[in-house]
Design a protein that fits this description.
four-stranded mixed β-sheet, Rossmann fold, 48% helix, 14 strands, 390 residues
Length: 390
């Protein structure tokens, strides 16, 4: 019996999940203290609205659209909607200055740009004259822009409303468009570290699916796993090895209320899988060291003794984790953590020893079979370049 071939593209993979698991939760966003859930069916609606909005203004397969925003569900909808329209999705670091943003938009031949808010919009308005292909700027959060009017700019709400109308009047366009996307078609534009050099890397849909499959074999996510999106979406680690991996595995992605509530949301969620970079673990290590320094003398002795026992391993390590370090993990938001992984950059040795003492095994996606998944040379180069390690 012939095996059913897998999807050729990220949108095809997502469409498969929508068709069979529409009522399940796929992501959540913390808003005013409440986790608000989005189902697969709702995700599909958002994708179609973005794709329709793009097509309604003449965006075609092979065109590029970029996102300049902090990690949030709207970033997800824009990214998947761009891909669903057959386009190339580029992510730009919102910390970049106006000159760098302009350079990246020009290099990418960007036609549509999604921006977070007034701050990001101001950067683009300063440099848009240098971006001759740029046709439309779509604003996620229009707070402070009530009196602003510009023929090139519109709110995300107006953009997706037009997209919904386009989708209603072009029955079959969505599914036919996804079916036409091939594995060798460009999908994700990744700007490397040191953006001022103009260096970037293009992933095809096949590249992205290959990386997802390789990560899945190492991380072994389960249906219903919970992850917290702590990294910027413009990075490969969050977009491909975070979001796309979670979509493939039917894990739930959770998004921060704002960038400053990472620790609080981590403590509340207690995720079961966590893909981050070393800086997150360094921050957790420093937070714990600071808390230990302010504890009582007895608490300091117990903590230090437990860490030492955890590093030595054996029966004493198991006892230390049960009696002392379990509470540390819970306080950090790691009590349920089953799978942890990082990208190409290694943990500092002291942080690595501390993590192991807690009983957490962090696997590294760096192409080395003895450390993480065995990725062939081409894909290891993609990962290394995305982290600026080459």
């Amino acid at each position: 019996m012939a095996l059913t071939p897998g999807p050729n593209s990220i949108p095809a993979m997502v469409a498969d999940r929508i068709a069979t698991h529409g009522s399940e939760t796929v992501l959540r966003k913390k808003h005013r203290g409440i986790w608000q859930a989005v189902t697969w069916s709702q995700l599909g609606e958002h994708m179609r609205e973005v794709s329709g909005g793009l097509k309604a203004i003449g965006f075609r397969s092979g065109h590029t659209a970029c996102v300049l925003a902090d990690t949030c569900p709207d970033w997800v909808y824009a990214d998947l909607g761009i891909l669903g329209a057959g386009g190339v999705s580029g992510g730009i670091d919102p910390a970049e200055g106006a000159q760098s943003v302009g350079q990246m938009l020009h290099q990418a031949d960007c036609r549509v740009l999604f921006v977070d808010n007034e701050e990001q919009l101001d950067k683009v308005l300063l440099v848009r004259e240098r971006c001759p292909t740029l046709q439309r700027i779509v604003i996620f959060d229009t707070k402070g822009l009530r009196d602003f009017a510009d023929p090139m700019c519109e709110s995300f709400q107006a953009f997706v409303a037009r997209g919904a109308e386009y989708d209603r009047t072009h029955t079959g366009d969505w599914s036919a468009g996804i079916a036409a996307i091939g594995a060798d078609q460009p999908a994700a534009l990744l700007f490397s570290c040191g953006h001022v050099t103009g260096k970037c890397r293009m992933l095809t849909h096949g590249d992205a699916l290959h990386l997802v499959a390789s990560a899945r074999s190492m991380v072994q996510p389960r249906v219903g796993d919970e992850r917290l999106a702590l990294l910027p979406m413009y990075q490969m680690m969050e977009r491909v090895l975070g979001l796309y991996l979670a979509l493939d595995a039917r894990a739930v992605s959770n998004y921060l209320e704002n960038p400053d509530t990472g620790i609080e949301n981590l403590q509340e969620l207690q995720p079961t899988m966590l893909g981050t970079d070393p800086r997150v673990w360094q921050s957790l290590h420093e937070r714990t060291a600071h808390a230990a320094a302010g504890a009582t003398r007895l608490q300091r002795l117990l903590y230090r003794g437990a860490i030492a026992a955890g590093q030595r391993g054996g029966a004493l390590a198991a006892l230390a984790r049960l009696c002392v370090l379990r509470a540390v993990r819970r306080e950090l938001g790691l009590s349920r953590l089953r799978r942890a992984y990082i990208g190409a950059a290694s943990l500092p040795s002291d942080v690595e020893r501390w993590v192991l003492a807690l009983g957490i095994d962090i696997q590294q996606i760096d192409g080395q079979a003895n450390r993480g998944i065995a990725v062939d040379a081409r894909y290891r180069a993609l990962i290394d370049e995305a982290y600026g390690t080459t």
